[in-house]
């Protein structure tokens, strides 16, 4: 098999404002996923499975938790090539921080360190996307096409164009045009995929027009990346540099037809988690040969007593006495009391069963959901204490609400990390 000299760069510095309040206490790539992983585990695992083990993580906002997770999770032995370097904004000679102001700007300011890697290609990934992709095939295509830049792309329905950067690709698979989130029908029509595109891809053509969306995953030749970042000093690959790259070199498209989700909003995060409880196609977490890696916990299996469980995931170390749990993801070390009903909800779990200080702390201070609670369409963040007879059901069907540790976004209730809700609290 052909040897490819590749360094992976994972962009993990975004503040994630559209994911607020989940990002009030976490950077986006450090948010829990599927009850036991962090979002950052997905791109790292995909890179390792593609045999690209020289990895740089570029972080900025609330980076301490993310750095701790990576340092505790990923270890390469002395007989196994690989490393993960964690890069954050550096101080200037004047003692000022050079903050990253966009995806391209983060790579540009990290170049002195990145270029120490003896890599012919740089694979650039996002720290908050979900997929199972053989990234090696993407780099092989880049080499085969002799492309200066290669963009991973996925067909999307034409009505979703305002969410993505849209590519125009010729019959040879080279990118001829790019538009960042086109809005008008005239713009969209010029980017519609030809009918024979899906036949060439050996896929059944859809009944309605589709567009080809950039996935925010790029492969650059080493010299092409250096030249592009020096030629165009603007901040973002998608908003700015892709069109510059189209004018200055060959850009190929790597077409992907599997599951992919960009976690950009509370609703997309919520739906991506609950998709795991259904039989629909989502990210594959059950591949023994290519698992999603995360920090080992050595927890016991969940203990479930007198509970009705439907279409749910219950993670290690949980103790469940609930009356009913339906279509939920229950994270590690979750504790749910007698008589409680949970539906269409996500519990992110806990780092500890109780706060790690004051060992004489009474049992009621354990992180848990109490007895006889009703919680529906909610996300409960880490290390939360919910009392007895609490109701979180949003009976007024509010779309937006800001409270003390309790919020509503997109009609979804969010209890932020470390919140304590007293008995009989109602929202």
What is the CATH level 1 assignment of the largest domain?
Alpha Beta
| Whole-number count of domains | 2
Which band does the percent of strand residues land in? Answer: 25-35%
Q: Sheet bearing the most strands, described?
A: 9 strands, mixed
CATH superfamily of the largest domain: Spore Coat Polysaccharide Biosynthesis Protein SpsA, Chain A
Q: What oligomeric state do the depicted chains represent? A: single chain
Output the radius of gyration.
Answer: 23 Å
**Residue-averaged pLDDT, rounded?**
90
Low-pLDDT parts are none
Q: What is the tally of helical segments?
A: 9
Q: Architecture of the largest domain, CATH level 2?
A: Alpha-Beta Complex
Q: Helix/strand/pairing class, anyone?
A: alpha/beta
What is the fold-level CATH name, i.e. the topology of the largest domain?
Answer: Spore Coat Polysaccharide Biosynthesis Protein SpsA, Chain A
Helix content: 10-25%
Give the total of beta strands: 30
Q: What sort of overall outline do the alpha carbons produce when their principal axes are compared?
A: globular
Distance between the terminal alpha carbons, to the nearest Å? 58 Å
């Amino acid at each position: 098999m052909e040897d490819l000299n590749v360094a992976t760069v994972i962009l993990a510095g975004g503040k994630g404002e559209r994911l607020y309040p989940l990002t009030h206490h976490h950077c986006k790539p450090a948010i829990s996923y599927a009850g036991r992983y962090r979002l950052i585990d997905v791109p790292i695992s995909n890179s390792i499975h593609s045999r690209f083990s020289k990895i740089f993580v570029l972080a900025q906002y609330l980076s301490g938790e993310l750095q701790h997770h990576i340092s505790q999770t990923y270890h390469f032995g002395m007989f196994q090539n690989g490393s993960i370097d964690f890069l954050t904004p550096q101080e200037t000679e004047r003692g000022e921080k050079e903050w990253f102001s966009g995806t391209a700007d983060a790579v540009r300011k990290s170049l002195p360190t990145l270029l120490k890697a003896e890599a012919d290609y740089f694979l650039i990934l996002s720290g908050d996307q979900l997929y199972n992709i053989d990234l090696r095939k993407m780099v092989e295509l880049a080499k085969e096409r002799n492309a200066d830049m290669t963009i991973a792309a996925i067909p999307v329905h034409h009505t979703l164009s305002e969410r993505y950067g849209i590519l125009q690709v010729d019959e040879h698979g080279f990118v001829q045009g790019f538009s960042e989130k086109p809005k008008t029908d005239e713009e969209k029509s010029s980017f519609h995929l030809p009918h024979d595109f899906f036949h060439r891809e050996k896929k059944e053509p859809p009944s309605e027009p589709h567009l080809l969306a950039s996935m925010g995953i790029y492969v650059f030749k080493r010299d092409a990346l250096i030249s592009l970042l020096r030629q165009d000093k603007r901040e973002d690959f998608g908003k700015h540099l892709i069109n510059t790259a189209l004018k200055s070199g060959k850009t190929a498209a790597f077409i992907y037809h599997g599951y992919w989700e960009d976690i950009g909003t509370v609703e997309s995060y919520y739906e991506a988690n609950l998709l795991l409880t259904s039989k629909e196609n989502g990210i594959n977490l059950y591949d023994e040969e290519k698992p999603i890696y995360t920090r080992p916990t050595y927890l016991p299996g969940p203990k479930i007593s007198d509970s009705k469980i439907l279409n749910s995931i219950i993670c290690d170390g949980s103790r469940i006495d609930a009356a009913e749990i339906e279509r939920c993801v229950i994270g590690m070390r979750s504790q749910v009391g007698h008589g409680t009903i949970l539906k269409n909800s996500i519990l992110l779990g806990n780092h500890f069963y109780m706060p790690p200080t004051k060992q004489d702390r009474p049992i009621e201070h354990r992180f848990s959901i109490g007895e006889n609670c009703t919680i529906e369409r909610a996300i409960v963040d880490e290390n939360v204490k919910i009392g007895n007879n609490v109701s979180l059901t949003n009976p007024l069907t509010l779309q937006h609400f800001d409270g003390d540790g309790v919020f509503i976004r997109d009609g979804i209730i969010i209890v932020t990390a470390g919140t304590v809700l007293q008995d009989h609290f109602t929202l």
